[in-house]
Write a structure and sequence with these properties.
Elements lengths: L2 H9 L4 E3 L2 H6 L6 H11 L5 H18 L6 H11 L1 E13 L4 E6 L4 E6 L1 H6 L8 E9 L10 E8 L7 H8 L4 H11 L9 H9 L2 H4 L4 E6 L7 H5 L4 E4 L6 H4 L16 E4 L11 H13 L1 E4 L2 E4 L3 E7 L4 H7 L13 H4 L4 E4 L15 E3 L1 H10 L13 E3 L5 H18 L7 H25 L9 E4 L5 E3 L3 H5 L1 H4 L7 H5 L2 H6 L12 E5 L8 H9 L4 E5 L6 H16 L7 E7 L6 H14 L5 E7 L9 E4 L3 E5 L17 H4 L9 E7 L1
Helix pairs in contact: 3-4, 17-18, 23-24
Amino acid sequence: MSELDKKINQHFSGLVVRKDLVKEVKGNAIVPTFVLEYLLGQYCASDDEDTIRTGIETVKSILASHYVHRNEANLTRSMIKEKGYHKVIDKIQVSLNDKRDVYEAVFSNLGLKEVLVDSETIKAHPKLLVNGVWCIATLEYMPSEDSKISPWILESLKPIQLSNFDMELYLEQRKQFTTDEWMDLLMQSIGLNPEHFSKRGKYLQLTRLIPFCERNYNLIELGPKGTGKSHVYSEFSPHGMLLSGGEVTVPKLFVNNNTGKIGLVGYWDTVAFDEFAGKSKRVDKALVDILKGYMANKTFSRGIETLGAEASLAFVGNTQHNVPYMLKHSDLFDELPDKYRDSAFLDRLYYYIPGWEVEIIRGEMFSEGYGFVVDYLAEVLRSFRDQDYSDRITKFFSLSSDISTRDRDGIRKTFSGLMKILHPTGEASKEETEEILRFSLEGRKRVKDQMIRIDHTFPPVNFAYTDDSSGKEYPVTTLEEREYPRHYHQNVELEDEAVHETYASYVAKQPDRPSTSPESTHVTVEEGQKGISYDKLFGQYLTGAKEITVTDPYIRAFYQVRNFMEFLETISRFKEPEDEIKVHLITTPDDFSETQQMGNLDRLMDVVKQMGIGFTWEYDLSRTIHARHIVTDTGWKISIDRGLDIFQKVDLNDQLSITNRMQEYRQCKRFEVTYLQL
């Protein structure tokens, strides 16, 4: 058990569960994660292995005895008839039979219809009237002489969701965790291993939770298949509903004017639209118009009556093309049906999650650590829907006056949501506040910039904020803007200086073999940015050097030695074939695998000889070196705050991975480089 897992169990005993247990108990049961974790939370919320094993067997027994498999429905119905009653786990939906003046339930897996339900049950659980609720229900079989009367009766039910929780405990225990620890706890809670995600990657994952804690929050995520876009909306919370694209209709979503029945937005906290993208999809224009009104005003009409609702909307879909292609030929909303590429609709989206930055989910990315029982976390987030943390911005910062009211609303709601998720007490440092603010600005800017490309009547907006203590203004850019400035701004008139400041434009000007002298400068690369390579970073500054000294205390693990090898490859590409270059590395020993480290570095000495590179290395046994830099005999000093470890983790074992082969396709960590002429 990791130190974090120990800490989680210490402060949230009985409210957490080991996430790998879900797979162990699920078997062939097609049950949402929150159902399984509800049961695991009852019997396995412990760090004691014996208790966990006993609990697993109990949960398996409950599922075996009470979960209804579709192919065993007849057997279960027969058992209920013979016993007279039986407890089942199933998804139940209720409707009013106005001809008989009774409520009747449909059991999804059991295949039962016309199960009688009393009015008190409906009053207590109104969501039964919408798309169905997973429940533990007791069914009775009472045949009647009247064949028209159903023999099936719902005796009792218990929705599978937490009934109550202690908010004060949650807030108090949050104080025991650092922000990084808390973020990792939340990542494990949604079933992901935080070790496989950068901080920005964690932010992108946790942003998916905002619709559950913010009322009337409108979110879109477009990206490649397999990144888990819809998972959180179908598996995470009993208060969320996931709809496939073909299932969306006005009556189902808002109101059936013929029956007066309220649709999904009136009952669920979050309604997510799966498979939202697809240019060829037929879309009901009336639905788009009603959506625009609801997203803007939080209301919809039922005949002459106007009704309000609090449901947040999430739109998720797949993209067919990469980012530069979309930017060059269209925009980042390119995959949406034409009727949704309406600037009035898009303007009501508060955040655009760049799904192309989210890694395709692999087996090793699932968590085996402890996290909140998802039903518990779902209830916590739901309780925050009554609160607004957007005013925390004004403690340190002010938004640019150029930002419109709708832009400002989107930024503030995203900020508020992330504050509730990461800092539920409402307290965050200035640096933490700024980090969330920049992230919030970026997501709304992504929406607005694409709207401007679609509808040129929208003026460009300066997405920036001011530090109230210094008065300095800080502009915010998206990563796509940094990576592809020529395509990103092709339809927008911006000052040349604004584009020139981005690193992407800087490296784009550099030829493979420089024809002009390099200059002293400073560049910053943001987390998640692509298009970066050692060639672009260092190539022109290494040209002509005969001796190069690299100081980096962290050339230890295999991947770090591999990074250094790729740096030597850059040196080889920027020297003349006939030249010989001396490269000396100063590093520190690996306390855990020094023998392996020495073997890798010695092996590298032999490998690069054929490249015309004489490589040597030594340990700094004082262990006092911290600065990381490259010094050449041509008078250049390149200071890198992260050393050569600038790329996020790639799978070195996957020989067919493009990120393994080409640095430009890797996501970067945030780092800064300073080039000085000595």
